[in-house]
Write a structure and sequence with these properties.
It is built from 2 helices and 9 strands. With about 150 residues, it is an alpha+beta fold. It has a single domain, classed as Pnp Oxidase, Chain A (Roll). Strands 1, 2, 3, 4, 5, 6, 7, 8 and 9 form a 9-stranded antiparallel sheet that branches. It is elongated and about 90 Å long.
C-alpha cells in the first residue's frame, strides 16, 4: 500500500511540476527596438528581427551605388507608441535594436540605424493569435560597432 501511495504521489508531483514549468514565460533572449523621438525614447519588445543589406547601382551611366539596409521586425502585437513615432517622423528616425541574453552566456548584440522608415507593414489579428510585421529601410547601419558599407 505504501509503495502504491508513494508511486502515485511521485507521479502526480512530476506531472504538476512539468505543468508549472511549461507555463512559465521565461524568454532567455530579449530583443528590443528603441527609437529616439525628440527628447524621449520609445521601446518595444520584438519577437524576431531579420536584417539584409544590398548594394544597388542607381545610375548605370555614372555607376552610382546606393546601399540599402532593411529590417523585418516580427512583433507579438502592434505597438502603438512605436508606430506613432515612425508616423510622426516621416523623414526617418534614429534607433537601435538590441539582443540581450538573460543568462549572460551570449554577448549583447546591437544594431544602430539612422533615418529608419517604414517600408511596409502588416497586422494579423484573430481570436487565438495576433502579430505585426514591420519592414524598415534605413540610411546607415552599425552592427556591434562595425559600420556596414
Amino acid at each position: 500500500m505504501n509503495k502504491i501511495f508513494f508511486t502515485i504521489t511521485f507521479i502526480a508531483t512530476l506531472f504538476f511540476s512539468v505543468l508549472t514549468y511549461g507555463q512559465q514565460d521565461d524568454k532567455r533572449i530579449r530583443v528590443e527596438i528603441s527609437l529616439k523621438d525628440g527628447n524621449k525614447v520609445v521601446k518595444a519588445a520584438v519577437r524576431s528581427v531579420t536584417f539584409s543589406f544590398t548594394k544597388s547601382v542607381v545610375n548605370s551611366e555614372t555607376n552610382e551605388v546606393k546601399n540599402n539596409y532593411y529590417f523585418s521586425l516580427d512583433l507579438e502585437k502592434q505597438d502603438i507608441p512605436l508606430l506613432a513615432a515612425f508616423m510622426k517622423n516621416k523623414a526617418g528616425i534614429d534607433g537601435m535594436i538590441t539582443m540581450t541574453d538573460s543568462y549572460g552566456k551570449m554577448p549583447m548584440r546591437k544594431f544602430d540605424f539612422t533615418k529608419g522608415r517604414i517600408d511596409s507593414m502588416s497586422d494579423q489579428i484573430n481570436g487565438d493569435y495576433s502579430s505585426a510585421y514591420i519592414s524598415l529601410i534605413s540610411d546607415s547601419l552599425i552592427i556591434d560597432g562595425v559600420k556596414i558599407d
